[in-house]
Amino acid sequence: MSKPQDVDTAELRARYPDVFNRPASARLATPSMLVAALAIFVFGLVDLDFSPSRFITGLSQLGWISMMMMPPDPGSSLPLYLQALGETLSIALLGTTLAALLALPVSLLAARNIVPHIVRFPVRRFLDSIRGVDTLIWALVWINVVGLGPFAGVLAIAVSDFGAFGKLFSEAIEGADQRQVEGIRASGGSALHEIRFGLLPQVLPVIAGQVLYFIESNTRSATIIGIVGAGGIGLQLAEQIRVLEWQKVSFLILMILVAVAAIDFISGKLRFAIIGRRAVA
Amino acid sequence: MDPALFLDGPVFSMTVAVSILPEQQLAALNAAYSKALARKRLRLLAGFAVFVAALIVASIGAEVNLRTFFTYFGNFISYFDRILTLDSGQRVWTNFGEWFWGLRKWLKLLGETLLISYVGTLIGAVLAFLLNFFSAENTSPAPWLRFTVRRLLEFARTVPGIVFALIFVMAFGLGPVAGVLAIAIHSTGALGKQFSEIVENADMKPVEGIRSTGASWISCMRFAILPQVSAGYASYALLRFEINVREASVMGFVGAGGIGQELIVAIRKFYYSDVSAILVTIIVTVFLIDITTGWVRAHLFGKEARN
């Protein structure tokens, strides 16, 4: 073979000049972006005090801590921890339920097919700002209002999920089929009838799926709001870390992992039962 | 339901069929229907009862106290009144200079927060990138490796980031280093899962093509899988960056750097107008980041990748 590719290339070059002579801006785009990303990264490392010596002492410290964590051992506080875990699960369940109940009527006010733009816009922005504030911050605010304890945690989760649910529910409502609503209207139903018999049967399964999913993820959130004093297992965890009881810490982390896995399993089963296997896959 | 079905034949024949059903058969059908309905209602009712019972148990567990709630609910409303009032008693927006008196300091801390989330996301994305081929069903070289990597990633994303931060503060000392590492580990777990899901959806024919030339596993990943998945990777990493900005804004609560430190001091010490000022700067920053990453994603991957 006498190098056929040379001939081909020359011809192709002539025929498709754009492909072979890409402008410098196109050729340099990716490398320059990578260089910029790397530059910011290095600047970040320097600015955030990442020195090699600090990193190495930290790592050896971390290794020592992990050794101290073995084996996980609750000491004599197992009943206390189980109670705290129950508290955490209660916070997640109550907070999510409360949020869902509050968000359902409000989400109607944020759905395009229910209300005019002039109502929808401010409601949406209101929900956005609630979501912009982290659950931990809401927990701090509620602690100021109802005092330290799990109740503040319930309210914190309820408020921050209210923002998320309002958005998700209104999207579910906007995605609903209008024809069923029109059918109700055609048979003489009022606006409330349209919502009750035309919309709710379509959106309730979707909403139930989302609520269950949030109970799962709130089990995780509820484990951490204790760190700022809003009850649950996070309170114990933060305390044991502060007093360097590493075996108890690892036991508590293990408890959280098991609890989250159990809730995942249960709510997964329930979700399949409610909306069918295909809808969640 | 197909509307075409509705318009012709079946409707007509159905009404006829129903009207000529004999009385007994109709009664039997009606009975069966109401029985089925009753069973469904009973199941719903039972589910509802279990749910309510769970709620009651939970409200005892969570020390729900409605009396406290109603007594102090006014406090919640007035809290917003207070954080929107300056020390001089005026509304905050009448005097921006005094409301945002610490803007320079806060912006510096916000910059630190953004850097924490950037560096953390990048480290997490690189680690997730290195691990995800081992955990994906279709590319993993060995089942035991897949199992191990998957459990590792699961652990990294189930333990909340702030718990890692608490532990890292003990190991690395107070400051942003702990925050960065906490965010990096949590991102590794979350991104590792999402990345490997993209790989699992990738077309395997290019891999076969490359393997047939005698290429190694690494070359297969590099030339067959990577070109298919890199856009998805970048998209998920950007999304994770958005999430991490929020996460990093509270890392300071446990001493892991960023604006959170300033916020928790303001809340705990009742510097009311500072609370609202810091919250406003955080919310505005989060909005801006969301908009920017949305724009970047739209430009990198076209309009359809925006959501």
Elements of chain A, N to C (H/E): HHHHHHHHHHHH
Beta-strand content estimate of chain B? under 5%
Quickly count the helices of chain A: 12
User: What does the main sheet of chain B amount to?
Assistant: none
Q: How many individual β-strands of chain B?
A: 0
What features would you describe in this structure?
The complex is a heterodimer of chains A (281) and B (307). Chain A has 281 residues and is an all-alpha fold. Chain A folds into 2 domains: 4-69; 78-280, MetI-like (MetI-like fold). Helices cover 82% and strands 0% of the residues of chain A. Chain A has helices spanning 4-15, 17-20, 24-47, 52-69, 78-108, 117-132, 135-146, 150-174, 178-186, 191-225, 233-242, 246-280. Chain A is flat. Chain B is an all-alpha fold. Chain B has a domain at 100-305: MetI-like fold (Orthogonal Bundle). Chain B has 13 helices and no strands. In chain B, helix 8 (161-172) crosses helix 9 (176-200) and helix 10 packs across helix 11. Classes of the chains: A mainly alpha (281), B mainly alpha (307). Chain A: Belongs to the binding-protein-dependent transport system permease family. Chain A: It comes from Bradyrhizobium zhengyangense. Chain A: Keywords: Membrane, Transmembrane, Transmembrane helix, Transport. Chain A: This is Phosphonate ABC transporter, permease protein PhnE. Chain A: It is found in: Cell membrane.
